[in-house]
């Protein structure tokens, strides 16, 4: 899911990391391309800004088209890795549970609202057009263990087998014959991005690994940036969709654009009306190599850059991640990351260069140093809350003023008056012949209508209270005060962070306890364990599949006391849930149809021993936020023992197909049969009926791991070589080193060196992803157009003098000209035009020059123009 606002902060602070993608060029290529498939599946199956596909077949086709669109942009040369989210660690399940319960609740509320609006339209006599009732697509099915994900995995296998076959025309040449494809579908445990990171981490640990392989990861989550930094790979890039604000969405009732659901009139779309074109979002590249350059400048030469990067990743965990809530005093929009970095630098600046004690090493946390950071943050916590309180009060006042002004000057525009409403099917005859005249007329009408409204308010006030004269100011003040009262009722802040006693109120309302000191210590301990779990997950893989943070809220920075005494232990023997077990853990009762019949009854039967896990209604605590999606869903945590005890009674009811859905799978490796070496090797395995795992390195240069025949798929997919693939294995307790490998060649520097000698010429950075990338290109037709335009305007390079007069006189000024401008505009070259024309007239609106030098300059200009306005052109 990522960290809200993190990418916005990062791209503003380090702007050169972003490169806009031009899909028409297709000049980029990368060795290894990794697709976080859930970021593709969701927008293709239920897009936000256009009509969704109607059938599963259309959804799958949209997914395949999207993947090929990506491949035309990035052109993988060696490996394409498709990673679908499998069963997640228990720490992630809590977030998944919250999101799926919210989605179900929002879907039900929207359905009720749609029916309510339809009834209101029918009461007004509006006959709604007959619309075909379509089955609602429950996005919760994009979870391991559902029939939908089983079908998607099957279609992905067939599609890869087809694309790598020798019969694939491949007109765009995006499927090289040496390309290897790994499919890690929903049956393989682990989040998609972390399965990708595990592959890179284990490949990198081999001695023969090429440190200059270029990696590209496709995904929109902000935490992918931190995962990419954690690899310490120098040639790493991320591709993500560019966010387009204020994208129009179709109405949920009539499926038309241009209005929201609450404003729908029920009219059906005119057949002659052109289709509404939705802007397809483009893509941007995020250059991790450039981010490393920025971070190198942040730390300077006194730090070990690789260790500083690891500490930077760790500090970012405090402002939010998928497994822990962020600390109350840290908001990215308030500069939280910058504050943490400043505290960190102040601490590290007191230590010698060669004996600095960093916060982390290879994914393990130095709790002593972390305690110092948190203590210093806790010292300014009260100041942070007081400043936030002032800012929030200022924001509310500004919003109330804006709302009051909107209500005060609101009016009904002419085209919304009842007398212009026509029956459906009739055409409104437009008498508008001049748009500018009509705009002036409308502006005049609006102005007088506002005046009439003010006069009407005054008259009403006088009629109500004839003995006391009333004025519009008092009316407005009373309405403004009423608005303040209404807003204060809507937004009640029970905690009041920044006011005296905020900590005791926080623990009383959030944790239902008055022993805030003891509870704070307990919550802080679990939070520290969580920080260690997350960092180890990023650098070493999942340390414990069963651990999770057992609270909805985070502690304060001042609650972290003596954390170096906390014993950090994880159960490395813990196993992931099975797919159907995860569905029972994260699904609401509304999505129970995706479970076996006897299993779903545990969600709805009032006598079920775990019925309390599936509440129909639950509270969403805004927790100081303005939007419900940013709030905290107060759902009960799943008790693992109670869940498994209840499931033991229904496990015998599973059919054979349901047992397959509930089983864990493995990675699949697809290789084209054009690769003769691997084809001959697999034939030998088939002849010998071998089930042994064999190293893939001698047959697929540059890849490490083992392959073996798959019991089912190796026989089914004959267009390609399809085998089971396993990552390289390492002994228990092995530590993956977080470092830059020897022989790694960094890309050409993009940022201008601080000691760059300007006498060598202008600094020319690498603008795109390739050294030869050109920022702008002009083809032959464009050059001809420029030459033609230049020749035509050679003797008339200035606009029409009449336009200049109106552009610079007192009645019209460009926006960048202020009333009090004092500079003297230099004379503009004037074209040869017949008739009397005073070229200096256009400058007469200017004020007097500031000093004698400007005054003399202006006199010279005036004299030269009065003597001979065209003397420069007659020479």
TrEMBL record:
Biased composition (Low complexity): 838-859
Any single Pfam family the record assigns to this protein: XRN_M
Family matches, as PANTHER family: 5'-3' EXORIBONUCLEASE 2 (PTHR12341:SF41), 5'->3' EXORIBONUCLEASE (PTHR12341)
Main subcellular location: nucleus
Gene3D superfamilies associated with the record: 1.25.40.1050, 3.40.50.12390
Similarity-based family: Belongs to the 5'-3' exonuclease family. XRN2/RAT1 subfamily.
Function: Possesses 5'->3' exoribonuclease activity. May promote termination of transcription by RNA polymerase II.
Span list, region Disordered: 790-875
Name the record gives this protein: 5'-3' exoribonuclease
Pro residues: bias regions: 826-837
GO-annotated biological processes: mRNA processing; nuclear-transcribed mRNA catabolic process
Domain (Xrn1 helical): residue spans on this chain: 303-755
Domain called Xrn1 N-terminal: residue spans: 1-242
Organism of this sequence: Dinothrombium tinctorium
EC number(s) on file: 3.1.13.-
UniProt entry keywords in alphabetical sequence: Exonuclease, Hydrolase, mRNA processing, Nuclease, Nucleus
GO molecular function: 5'-3' RNA exonuclease activity; RNA binding
Enzyme class: hydrolase
Residue spans of biased composition, Basic and acidic residues class: 865-875
Gene Ontology CC terms: nucleus
Localization per record: Nucleus
